[in-house]
């Protein structure tokens, strides 16, 4: 998707929300064969957040969506796109329930499933709806309840993932104004679908009439292979977006990568030649929140003053599928709303 259009999608509101439950590295030390030093040195994470009993992805999405609408000064949109790998149910999609809970009426609403790259795929859908004239305003949400799919006894995943939601409001505008979403590049490689997966619960396992192992109901990830693909794919798509934006690497004021792992974000920055002091990060306090990661990072960074009006921002994400993407924008004058319960 290129920038050569007359009707653009402009970021008009941004927000993030994390649930109140906190799991610290000390909590994990008490039940897993791990230490605070091991987790911090390999992931950069000190704590992550989880939903209380009875709360799931819909509630997270509604909280972030409500704040994003407030940030944009709106109480209506024409469509809702929800990126999530943890929908409340396999059927139906969660987005229509989110739209109803927000009082948005019978607007178009659908889910997007691209795991940790989901927000950029959802953003692309929102941009496309506005560019085509289908909508004038779109609420794009990333929300995840990974605590529901991670094995709490699995050291490889339990130390990484957290629950959260982030959202942006897009409005129709001019391609040259601050906040206009620039070029977006998306990609996938299904030959490596087994690197990040939940083997049981889908149509393939059910159709085979097999009895899954208990572990097959939890997220499984081959971390070392994922690391290599994530670095290469995010850097590749980011380079393409830099070129299509008419920028150079030196023009990038802020690099916002999916918060998978602090080492991956630094490796992508090094691969691109972006100085590490321009890399935005909040992974220390929220962990990997999958599709919620990017909008939460943007909201958190803007609210904290690390992301300022007219900063040229490069976004990149990578996740299961495999799926990845990158996008660019010049940051607008917008009031970000981020619920920083992790700083209380």
TrEMBL record:
<dbReference type="GO" id="GO:0044550">
    <property type="term" value="P:secondary metabolite biosynthetic process"/>
</dbReference>
<dbReference type="GO" id="GO:0005737">
    <property type="term" value="C:cytoplasm"/>
</dbReference>
<keyword id="KW-0963">Cytoplasm</keyword>
<comment type="subunit">
    <text>Homodimer.</text>
</comment>
<keyword id="KW-0275">Fatty acid biosynthesis</keyword>
<feature type="active site">
    <location>
        <position position="258"/>
    </location>
</feature>
<keyword id="KW-0012">Acyltransferase</keyword>
<dbReference type="InterPro" id="IPR004655">
    <property type="entry name" value="FabH"/>
</dbReference>
<dbReference type="GO" id="GO:0004315">
    <property type="term" value="F:3-oxoacyl-[acyl-carrier-protein] synthase activity"/>
</dbReference>
<keyword id="KW-0444">Lipid biosynthesis</keyword>
<comment type="similarity">
    <text>Belongs to the thiolase-like superfamily. FabH family.</text>
</comment>
<keyword id="KW-0808">Transferase</keyword>
<dbReference type="Pfam" id="PF08541">
    <property type="entry name" value="ACP_syn_III_C"/>
</dbReference>
<protein>
    <recommendedName>
        <fullName>Beta-ketoacyl-[acyl-carrier-protein] synthase III</fullName>
        <ecNumber>2.3.1.180</ecNumber>
    </recommendedName>
</protein>
<feature type="region of interest" description="ACP-binding">
    <location>
        <begin position="259"/>
        <end position="263"/>
    </location>
</feature>
<feature type="active site">
    <location>
        <position position="288"/>
    </location>
</feature>
<keyword id="KW-0276">Fatty acid metabolism</keyword>
<dbReference type="GO" id="GO:0006633">
    <property type="term" value="P:fatty acid biosynthetic process"/>
</dbReference>
<dbReference type="InterPro" id="IPR013751">
    <property type="entry name" value="ACP_syn_III_N"/>
</dbReference>
<dbReference type="Pfam" id="PF08545">
    <property type="entry name" value="ACP_syn_III"/>
</dbReference>
<feature type="domain" description="Beta-ketoacyl-[acyl-carrier-protein] synthase III N-terminal">
    <location>
        <begin position="111"/>
        <end position="190"/>
    </location>
</feature>
<comment type="function">
    <text>Catalyzes the condensation reaction of fatty acid synthesis by the addition to an acyl acceptor of two carbons from malonyl-ACP. Catalyzes the first condensation reaction which initiates fatty acid synthesis and may therefore play a role in governing the total rate of fatty acid production. Possesses both acetoacetyl-ACP synthase and acetyl transacylase activities. Its substrate specificity determines the biosynthesis of branched-chain and/or straight-chain of fatty acids.</text>
</comment>
<comment type="pathway">
    <text>Lipid metabolism; fatty acid biosynthesis.</text>
</comment>
<keyword id="KW-0511">Multifunctional enzyme</keyword>
<feature type="active site">
    <location>
        <position position="116"/>
    </location>
</feature>
<dbReference type="InterPro" id="IPR016039">
    <property type="entry name" value="Thiolase-like"/>
</dbReference>
<keyword id="KW-0443">Lipid metabolism</keyword>
<dbReference type="InterPro" id="IPR013747">
    <property type="entry name" value="ACP_syn_III_C"/>
</dbReference>
<dbReference type="GO" id="GO:0033818">
    <property type="term" value="F:beta-ketoacyl-acyl-carrier-protein synthase III activity"/>
</dbReference>
<feature type="domain" description="Beta-ketoacyl-[acyl-carrier-protein] synthase III C-terminal">
    <location>
        <begin position="243"/>
        <end position="331"/>
    </location>
</feature>
């Amino acid at each position: 998707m290129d920038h050569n259009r007359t009707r653009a999608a402009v970021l008009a509101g941004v927000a993030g929300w994390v649930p109140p439950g906190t799991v610290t590295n000390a909590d994990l030390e008490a039940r897993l064969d791990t230490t605070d030093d091991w987790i911090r040195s390999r992931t950069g994470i000190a704590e992550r957040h989880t939903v209380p009993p009875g709360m799931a992805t819909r509630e997270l999405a509604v909280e972030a969506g409500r704040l994003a609408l407030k940030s944009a000064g709106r109480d209506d949109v024409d469509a809702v796109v929800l990126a999530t790998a943890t929908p409340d149910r396999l059927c139906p999609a969660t987005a229509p329930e989110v739209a109803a809970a927000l009082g948005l009426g019978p607007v178009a609403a659908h889910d997007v499933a691209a795991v940790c790259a989901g927000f950029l795929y959802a953003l692309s859908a929102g941009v496309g709806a506005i560019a085509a004239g289908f909508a004038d305003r779109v609420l794009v949400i990333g929300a995840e309840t990974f605590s529901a799919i991670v094995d709490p006894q699995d050291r490889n995943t339990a130390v990484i993932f957290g629950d959260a939601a982030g959202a942006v409001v897009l409005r129709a505008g001019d391609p040259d104004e601050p906040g206009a979403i620039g070029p977006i590049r998306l990609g996938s490689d299904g030959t490596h679908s087994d690197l990040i997966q939940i083997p049981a619960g889908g149509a393939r396992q059910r159709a085979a009439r097999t009895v899954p192992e208990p572990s097959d109901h939890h997220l499984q990830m081959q971390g070392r292979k994922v690391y290599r693909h994530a670095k290469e794919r995010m850097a590749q798509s980011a380079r393409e977006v830099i070129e299509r934006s008419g920028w150079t690497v030196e023009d990038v004021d802020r690099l916002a990568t999916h918060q998978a792992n602090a080492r991956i974000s630094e490796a992508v920055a090094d691969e691109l030649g972006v100085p590490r002091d321009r890399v935005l990060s909040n992974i220390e306090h929220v962990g990997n929140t999958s599709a919620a990661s990017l909008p939460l990072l943007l909201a958190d960074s803007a609210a904290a003053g690390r992301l300022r009006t007219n900063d040229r921002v490069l976004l990149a994400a990578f996740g299961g599928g495999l799926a990845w993407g990158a996008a660019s924008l010049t940051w607008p004058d917008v009031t970000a709303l981020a619920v920083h319960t992790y700083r209380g």
